[in-house]
Amino acid sequence: xxLRHARRLGGVTAAALAAGLLVAPGAAAVPGTAVxxxxxxxxxxxxxxxxxxxxxxxTTAPGWLGVANPALTVTATSAQVRFAVWxxxxxxxxxxxxxxxxxxxxxxxxxxxxxxDGHSYSWKAWSAxxxxxxxxxxxxxxxxxxxxxxxxxxxxxxxxxxxxxxPGKYAGENGVFTLKGTDAAPAGGAxxxxxxxxxxxxxxxxxxxxxxxxxTVKAGAGGSAALTLKPKDWGTxxxxxxxxxxxxxxxxxxxxxxxxxxxxRPKPAAPGDVNGDGVPDILLPDAQGNLQIISAxxxxxxxxxxxxxxxxxxxxxxxxxxxxxxGWANTHGPGDDLLVRPKGNPQFxxxxxxxxxxxxxxxxxxxxxKPSQCIDSAGESITCPGDYAADWSGADQLVPxxxxxxxxxxxxxxxxSVEHGKLYAYVDSSRSYVxxxxxxxxxxxxxxxxxxxGADAADNLILWARDRATGDLHAYPVSKKSNGLLDFSAxxxxxxxxxxxxxxxTAYPTLGSSGDGDGDGTPDLWxxxxxxxxxxxxxxxxxxxxxxxx
Length: 550
Prior knowledge:
By secondary structure, this protein is mainly beta. A hairpin with a 2-residue loop joins strand 9 (about 120-130) and strand 10 (about 130-135).
């Protein structure tokens, strides 16, 4: 059919249509017939929010469609259904459809064509047969936007190549890119407005994306967005961006080429730092299973960056994995490598080399083996305890206490574990652990949460532990001995050295440390509350709620 099947109805019939009562002369409503559930296909909506609505009332904002030929459908008990459609953007609210279709399997469907770009439409349907018509549906509404959005990209931090302006940032630093979209409205019509942008740095844009997909940013007022990115490699980089409007129209990709200069300034090495900015980081999964890198010096929970869930060892997100960091196994520094033990495969401990300031893509992790050899405090070989496990699944807890002091080569962080209530320390040989040192075989450590705050201002290590039964926080000094090993003698009694109280599992189900997050020379504590708020401390006092985690 064509949309101009019936341009207008005259006199009483037109008035009846406007009032929502299409009644033929001499006809009465047919008892027992009904038309319900009016829907347009595809569903009108707003790409920015993901909301879909048929706006079958007088208050809901009509959704947008990016096609000129939606199908209008209803559920019907009558043999035939009559449809009427109005173009609300034309003078006098032009009626463009008045036609009857047959019902099939309880559904009546009206195909349309030729809807105008930028116009708003309303429609309703009635049950109809040879004796008359039934009650109409509510009037539903939608809008049409058929124009692809455009966009431009600019940045003062990393100006476009050829602009003659020097970059204000270096490779490895965050830069802000301004995305400005355009969604032109046709004469006499309206545009849906830019909803969001998909972006990729030095890669290929995805297909079949929406505003909730990874690597997207929502448009703000006026269709602009500020995108913060960290080019990991010095030299020429290419940012590719694509805009989507609220009708779901996707614009042509726009490429923005820029130069990120090499940063020759010396980098501070801060244990606990993952993204190489010299500040320790807190690593926590978000609701989608991505691993968030949140600076310990942040004022809210906005992550500096995220590590996609697909990079986790089992490719199913980081939410169930034990993620550790406090040192590195390569010469790259200064960002920590990751040690990851998946809940689904607890016998394995994976090493993720951090070669690009917290970007762990494009690599395969290696395995850190569980040593079969045990040593004493002097470094001499001894027989391992009888319940010592051959793999990492026997460790109820694993925490990294820091790198080996004075080591001439990079090293994995020394690990401390709780196994069958006993404490072990693991020393390394570059990328693998070669020996286990029993450090506390008396006392029961199974009721304690171990926390590794790293070194203090004098380079002395500390191990903290939270008594889950009381909420007491204990601090045990760990010093370096002349043979290069660490002195764990302060851990003989888990109940010793209470330094704070009130850290109950009810108040803080998760407790950890980022190292010296505020730069005052003292290691700091952080916690996640039962309602998933992130709280940071100065030392173990002065709690500061940074807000809800994503």
